[in-house]
Amino acid sequence: MPATPIHSKPKSWLWGTLTSIRLTVFLLLILAAVAVIGTVVPQNQPLNQYVRRFGEVWGELLWRGGFTRVYFSLWFLGPISLLAVNILACVVHGLPRAVKRALKPLTVEAALTLPERGRVTWPAGVDPQPLVSATLSRELGHCRQETFQDQEIYFLERGRCRPVGPYLIHVALLLILAGGLIGKFWGVDGRLAIDQGEAAGAFQVGPRVEKPLNFQVRLDKFQVSFYEPGGSPKEFRSDLTFIKDGREISRATCRVNAPVSFGGLTFYQSSYGSQATGPVRLRVQQGDLSQTVELPYRRPVDLAGGEGKVWLMQVDGNHQGYGPAVLIAFQAGSDHPMAFWIFQNRPGLAKSPYHPGLVKQPGVYSFTVESIPFGYFSVFQVKRDPGVGWVYAGFLLFLPGLYLAFFRPVERWALVLAQTPQGKWQGRLLGASPRRREEFAARQERLLMELQRGIPS
Amino acid sequence: MISQIFGAIMLIYLLVAILFLMAELWSSSRLKGLARIMLWLGLGMHTGALLGRWWESYRLALGHSPGAAWADKLQLIIIQVPLSNFYESLIFFAWCLPALGLLAFRRYLQGYLGALVALLSTLLLAYASLGGVDSNIKPLMPALKSNWLLIHVMTAFLGYAAFALAFGTAILYLLQERRPRPSLPPLPLLDSLIYRTTVLGFLLLTLGIATGAVWAETAWGRYWSWDPKETWSLITWFIYAALLHARHLKGWHGRRIAWLAVLGFMAVLFTYFGVSFLLTGLHSYLT
Ligand code: HEM
To answer: Which of B142, B189, B218 minimises the CB distance to A259?
Structure first.
């Protein structure tokens, strides 16, 4: 197939470049290269991570060159903006012609200029018109029929709208890019952490930057459940109440994959944790000696007997599905400290060898939990993105675009019937399908065969 | 139990590949017919085994939420589609190849082409069964509990499979071009089959990426996070878009298109395996 020139008129160098597919390929290559860097270099980490991983010189270079936030750097935004201009130029350049082409039905005159694909001659006295019209409508679908210069012409065209298809695809791409930009400039994206039982009136949009809400959200309850103890998590669930001017307006449950919207913002369950709300009480046994210690958060407490000290590192309301637990660090003398979990409701776990996590208790002591005052907190992604509609519109526009571009091949057929001076009918089959030669050829063969049926040879 | 059935299906596909080759070498239409029948049999068993695993994982899930109402049960059926871990993705991929092959190649699915498709499926099933991949059914983590799982993963893997077919055809094209063999399909046919499968793959991958974006938006509030898997699927998509442009606008055919199809499939492989094993991200649950 000859290359289809997309420029036919002479035009300026700039416009020629902007509408060229060469520029597209060039930009796509750059974008691909940058994207590869983005997947190999971990993104959005602090500088020291890169220095540790790639060394002083390279780490510094990656950081300064913008390769650690590459999708927001000029390396990426530059080519992608240019690609948007490139696509826009192509649309402006080609869409009007494609629409004009799609609006213009096949005329008899145009049909007669199609290349000839075969001939059929019927014996004198046979009127082939019933056979012809039945065969054509069976094999091709509804044909138009016109009489033109003493010839009977049956013709039809399929996929007239195909040329519009690629442009729908390109407009869809532009919509998606526009949606991305709109979200970037007019959207809001932040994080909100609420303690269970508390209400929040602002959320974080950057490091130490808060944005006020014009309402309040209260976390009534947070729950995490597991398929089975020691198994994988089943559900994270936050029960929320939205409060405006002191009045409770609505309640909602926010789960992963089931966000909640209120006041123009959407809340997505993103993570959770639990924290100590007071000192944890532990029972510590050493032989027959038993004592109770109160552990404030992260402050070392010496154990009676002087054999070591302990810290409270973490509390978890439902650790791996085994219920409330604390993470304790124990240090004997100047030994290396050791950390282990103690489960409140399952003291026996400390002795069982079959369970996940670190539970082996060190030293001469044996620990059990008396009480864990704890509270959950839940973390939400808070967002408003006016660009999402544009992106989705782009996705939807892809569908008719892809359908037209790939599944509606252009096909034109004409059957020209004329009578010879001897009174015989002769049919000439004309047609073309630039994109689907294979199917076209098969159909042509079958058509000619069908038309010849009933002709004694 | 069902895992053993997959082993049997693997042997059937292997047999199909051998039968197609023998039919071609001895030009025997009897063997060819037999190979086709065995292929349909393998595909039928494969479909049944997939449905069986689906049922089993639905039953297990039902055990975790007893007393579910009718609508919840329907939802459970949808989200328990066996497409949620690496093993399940492998056996679904292996199913897509003959299924799409029959759809896209029709009667050309025979001889070397048929053997190739059957062999690719055999390899995938062999990897799933013998490669030490965990075949246990696990309960779903919260992020995967979404109706979008079904359509997203199905379109993505059907797309990968269509590209695998384009790749296989491209390899045959390159072989045939280097040293013509009458037993291989003629070049123009291979060229048009590469194109047909690429178009199919492009459509499906587009759907896969778009539904993935919609899902990410409902799960995390971000339709695009530049997660490595997302990024690599986009790179893959660009390569195939380039192939289609090259063909339609520059009139590329034959060898150059075949090489692009090979390149594109390398990107598919990296998106599927490379990202899961070498890079980490949102999709790393696959490993
Ligand atoms: C990432 C960006 C792009 C994508 C994904 C894309 C996608 C597509 C697709 C799927 C088609 C249909 C192909 C076919 O008919 O086989 C197409 C056709 C086309 N594209 Fe693009 N395109 C992109 C960028 C561009 C750009 C920047 C230009 C302008 C230079 C362009 C010009 C065209 C033209 C002229 C056609 C063919 C129209 C026809 O067949 O009548 N494309 N594009």
So the answer is: B218
Residue by residue, pLDDT tens for chain B (287 residues) are 677 899 999 999 999 999 999 999 898 899 999 999 999 999 999 999 999 999 999 998 888 877 778 888 888 899 899 998 889 999 999 999 999 999 988 888 888 999 999 999 999 999 998 887 888 888 888 888 888 999 999 999 999 999 999 999 999 999 999 988 888 888 989 998 999 999 999 999 999 999 999 999 988 888 998 888 899 999 999 999 989 988 888 788 889 999 999 999 999 999 998 777 776 554 544 43
Do A65 and A15 lie in one domain? The reply is yes
Q: Using the mean position of ligand 1's atoms as its centre, give its distance from the Cα of residue A392 in Å.
A: 20
Find tokens 């790639």 and name the residue.
Answer: A54
Residues A83, A118 share a domain? no
Name the closest-CA residue to atom 30, ligand 1: A21
CA distance A138 to A258: 51
Name the closest-CA residue to atom 5, ligand 1: B241
Q: What ipTM does this complex have?
A: 0.91
Is residue A166 a part of any domain in this protein? no
Residue type, B187: L
Residue A337 maps to a domain: yes
The DSSP bridge partners found for residue A253 are: A239
Report the distance separating Cα B132 and Cα B3, nearest Å.
12
Q: Does some domain include residue A352?
A: yes
Closest residue CA from atom 18 of ligand 1? A166
A330 Cα: distance to centroid of ligand 1 (angstroms): 65
Pairing type for strands A374-384 and A188-195 reads antiparallel
> β-pairing, A188-195 with A425-432?
unpaired
Supply the pTM of this predicted model: 0.87
Asked if residue A420 and residue A334 are part of one domain, the reply reads no
Among protein residues, the one whose CA lies closest to atom 24 of ligand 1? A87
Please check whether residues A55 and A137 belong to one and the same domain: no
* Length reported for chain B: 287
CB contact under 8 A, A227 and B206: no
Are A323 and A348 members of one domain? yes
C-alpha B116/C-alpha B190 separation (Å) is: 13
Whether A370 is in a domain gets the answer yes
- Are B143 and A257 within 8 A, CB to CB? yes
- Between CA B95 and CA B101 the distance in angstroms is 10
One domain for residues A296 and A369: yes
Counted across chains A and B, CB pairs separated by less than 8 A come out at 99
Ligand 1 shell residues, CB under 6 Å: A 6, 19-21, 24, 86-87, 90, 94, 163, 166, 169-170, 173, 405; B 241, 244-245, 248-249
- A287 and A369 together in one domain: yes
- Residue A30 sits in the same domain as residue A64: yes
Owning domain of residue A448: 105-159+409-453
Residue of B198, B233, B245, B253 to mutate, ligand 1, most atoms within 8 A of C-beta: B245
DSSP-assigned states of every residue in A78-132: HHHHHHHHHHHHHHHHHHHHHHHHHHSPPPHHHHHTSPEEEEEEPPTT---HHHH
Number of domains, chain A: 3
Given CA atoms B162, B163, B166, B168 in this order, what sign does their dihedral have? negative
Task: Kindly list the residues from chain B whose CB atom is less than 8 angstroms away from the CB atom of residue A257.
Answer: 142-143, 145-146, 218-219
- Cα dihedral sign for B168, B169, B170, B174? positive
B214 touches chain A (CB under 8 A): yes
